[in-house]
Design brief:
Helix content: 40-55%
Distance between the termini: 39 Å
Organism: Methyloglobulus morosus KoM1
Number of strands: 13
Largest sheet: 6 strands, mixed
InterPro entries: IS1182_transpos, Transposase_11, Transposase_InsH_N
Strand content: 15-25%
Keywords: Coiled coil
Shape: flat
Pfam family, one: DUF772
Number of helices: 16
Protein name: Transposase IS4 family protein
Length: about 425
């Protein structure tokens, strides 16, 4: 094959074999993993078997398995079996683990036994980033991300799933009973064997029916009417694919906007996540951006009271704008008079206050709406009424920040994409 780059002969021996070190570049991320894990006090962090047993078969040092776990996390290799294969063919892992090849059961057991210790390693990594001044900008983006659970979809139950499964079992039992009736027409030895086999299937289906009855009782006692048998905390969630879904966790993640580092993760609300991020970064002040899915008046107020500055767009839910009429932003509030002015120049005066959805709301309207020339563009009702939350100034200040910093919209709309960007 002339005029082509020629490969080496597989049977060609080499006088001086290459070192594994030659295959891993100086800037390869596995070197960071190696140095980071080597400087951890695994015994203090609570890793199981950090000290070798006096008797028995030697085990893998936790640092080896932790390096493998972190490498799998960074390269999106979650399966223990896949990690086992990678140790046998992946040059980076050969270098990182010193050619050790733990089997998948050892890898799975390491994860199971050291869950709390691994979480402490995450805290140590955040502490290291803080020492390196990687959190110099006190600004994080918060968003949710779906993580698949071990729980299979068939082991997740809702009221509808139980009803469908019960219907399927009843249909199967009916089909087997019908087959039993026709079995008598066969020869005696064949009929006996078939009858025994069908009876076993019917017995199993009846046991499944009893299990469904038990699950249905448990469903009534759960707040969200959903049960996962393998991972109790996992929930069935819709995905982007039409008619598809997954059983998993919707984890909230706080990401540093400068270096794209995860500084906190949980399954709680905006304020709790923001506080975790502030504590992890050891920041006295913190700016948080999120998408409109996190918009909650009370959560925004809690952030403000905690010294955290939130920025997020407000959901567009104006029915008036959708119908081509004046939206809420066409009405200007005057704090000195506690009144609103409308596009026609009329004043909407305060009328009353009441509690609506745990919020104290004030209501304003004008008596001049009936004679207004712009009424058709404003409201089909007798008066155009405007509601105002008692802490509306907090939301107005946030909207002003968003208007003055358009770049924050990019973080607010796609915070987790920032993490994945090169």
């Amino acid at each position: 094959m002339k005029r082509f780059i020629e490969s080496n002969d597989r049977m060609q021996g080499t006088l001086f074999p290459e070192y594994l070190e030659d295959y891993v570049a100086e800037d390869n991320p596995v070197r960071v993993v190696d140095v980071f894990v080597e400087h951890l006090d695994l015994g203090k962090l609570g890793f199981y078997r950090a000290e070798p047993a006096i008797t028995g078969r030697p085990s893998y040092h936790p640092s080896i398995l932790l390096k493998l776990y972190i490498y799998g996390y960074l390269n999106r290799i979650q399966s223990s079996r896949r990690l086992e294969k990678e140790t046998q063919r992946n040059v980076e892992l050969m270098w990182l683990l010193g050619r050790l090849t733990p089997d998948f059961k050892t890898i799975a057991r390491f994860r199971k036994e050291n869950g709390k210790a691994i979480r402490k390693v995450c805290s140590q990594f955040v502490f290291l980033c803080r020492q390196l001044n990687l959190f110099s900008e006190a600004m994080v983006a918060i968003d949710g991300s779906k993580f698949k659970a071990v729980n299979n979809r068939d082991r997740n139950y809702t009221a509808n799933k139980v009803a469908r499964r019960r219907e399927q079992i009843e249909t199967s039992i009916g089909r087997y009973l019908s087959a039993l009736e026709t079995a008598d027409l066969l020869e005696p030895d064949i009929a006996e064997a078939k009858t025994e086999r069908l009876q076993e299937k019917i017995t199993k289906l009846k046991q499944q029916m009893e299990q469904l009855d038990s699950i249905e009782i448990q469903l009534q006692e759960t707040p969200d009417k959903q049960i996962s048998l393998t991972d109790p905390d996992a929930r069935s969630m819709a995905t982007s694919g039409r008619g598809t879904g997954m059983v998993g966790y919707n984890v909230q993640v706080a990401v540093d906007t400068k270096h794209h580092l995860i500084v906190g993760h949980d399954r709680n609300q905006l304020t709790n996540m923001a506080k975790q991020a502030r504590d992890a970064m050891a920041a006295t002040e913190l700016h948080v951006v999120a998408d409109r899915g996190y918009f909650s008046s009370l959560e925004i107020l809690k952030c403000q009271e905690a010294g955290i500055t939130p920025t997020m767009p407000k959901p567009a839910t104006s029915g008036a704008k959708a119908d081509g009429r004046f939206g809420r932003d066409h009405f200007v509030y005057h704090p000195e008079q506690n009144e609103y002015s409308c596009p026609a120049g009329e004043r909407l005066k305060w009328r009353y206050s009441r509690i609506e959805g745990n919020l104290t709301m004030h209501r304003y309207w004008s008596s001049a709406c009936q004679q207004c020339a712009l009424k058709a563009k404003c409201t089909p009702s007798k008066n155009r009424r405007v509601g105002r939350w008692e802490h509306e100034e907090v939301l107005e200040a946030m909207q002003k920040r968003l208007d003055q910093s358009p770049e924050a919209c990019g973080y607010a709309d796609r915070p987790l994409n920032i993490l994945l960007a090169p």
